[in-house]
Structures are given as C-alpha cells and as structure tokens.
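Please, structure for the following, as tokens.
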Amino acid sequence: MRGFGRLVERWAVVLAVGAVWQLVTVRADEVFFPPLSDILVRARDNWLSGPASSLFLTPAVGADVAPSLGRLAAGWLLAVVAGVGLGMAIGLIRDLGDYVDPLVEFVRAIPPPALVPPFLVVLGIGTRMKVVLIAVGVVWPILLNTIDGARSVDQAALDTGRAFRTGRVRRLTHIVLPAAAPKIFAGLRVSLSIALILMVISEMVAANGGIGFTIVTAQRSFAILDMWAGILLLGILGYLLNTLLLVVEGRVLAWHRGARGRGEP
C-alpha cells in the first residue's frame, strides 16, 4: 500500500507541473511555448493516429522512432559488453589497473559530442557512426562502476572460494559478478540516460531520419508543435526505458535487497 501511495505522489507532481505549464502558456499566448494540450494532440496525431490493425501506430513510428531505438539499443549493449568485460579485468588484475587507469581517466574526460567530427570522417553519416558514438560515450559509467564493484568484493569470499578449490570462471560468475552487480546496475542506469542524449545529438548532426532529426527539422521549419511533441516523446521514452531497467534490476538484485533487509535491525 505504501508503494502505491508513493506512485500516486510521483504522478501528482507530474500532473501538477503539466497543469502549471498549461495555465501559464494559455495566459501568455506565446507561439514558441504552446499549451501542453496542443502538444499532446500533435503527438497523438504524429504517432498514435494510425489504423487499429497497426495498434494505432502511424508510419512515422517505423520511420523515425524505431530506427532511433535500434541505434540506442545497439550502442548501449555494446557499451555494456565492453564496460563489464574490461571493468572486471581491470578491477581484478591490479597491475593492469595501474597501467590503464591514467588512460581511462584521460579518454573519459573527452566530451562525446566532440568526437562527432572525427567519427563522421572515419565512419560516415550512417547508422554505424551513431552506434559507435553512443557506445563510446556511455561505456564510462559502466566501466568505472564495474571496476569499483570488482575491487570491493569481500576478500573473505574470494579466499573461501579458493579454499574450496573453486575454478576461476565459477568464482567470477558466482562470487565476483553477484557482489559487483549493485554497482554495475548503477552504472547501467546512468549510461542509459546518456545513451538517449547521444542518440539525439548524433541524429541532429548527421541523419536523414530519427527522433533527433525530426526535432531539429521541425525547429528549422518553425513547426513548433512538432518540435515540442518530439521533446515530449523523448521524455516518455526515457521514463519507460528507465522503468524497464528498474524492473530488471529488481529481479536480478532481489537477493541483495533481501539480504540487506535481513541485516537491518
């Protein structure tokens, strides 16, 4: 019951902000800040006014939204594989960490948007450039959290595994990864929001389709309602993706939360 009450409170805040936006914009009558009701109607017309046979989705969903989500998913999954794999190696092998830590700190300080020009030269304007940009830009939270998680594993647990002659692969999958999983998921959540940002940036700079391309095209043609509808869509997608990841995290880390609950007085 408490969880339901918190959910109601969260949505009450969202509804309150929406109501304030509606009241202020109606009174201001500013062309660049239309009422929320008009934005919602335009969003429905753009993406949810199709036939029932296609679940009311318009062709624009397949032309713009689906490719954007595909690029985001591909880049983020590449970053997850690379970040967790390299993070485990750096975190568990102390000597390796001593050598690569300065390089990691140097490269991660480069803003990902600054990599767009060289990536355009090397990879072109196609999907590959966008996927690589997303992967390179979002790998750092995953990598650093995985390194921290691997280095914070209880040494007693590792010694116990060695005492029972547990193989390295088994120790990795049954001791190290579960112990590091809470910090890994913290990195995954941060990286997912960054992936959404980089997806939009890459599509605004060099693309002929996608949500970012739709927004910047609407802005350049002064289609203000279409621009705000695209921004609203990004917010909804970000919320849904974060919620989905939270559900997965809750299932994967159920044992961790249960252990914390039993340990509390």
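The mean pLDDT is 88. The CA atoms of residues 107 and 122 lie 18 Å apart.
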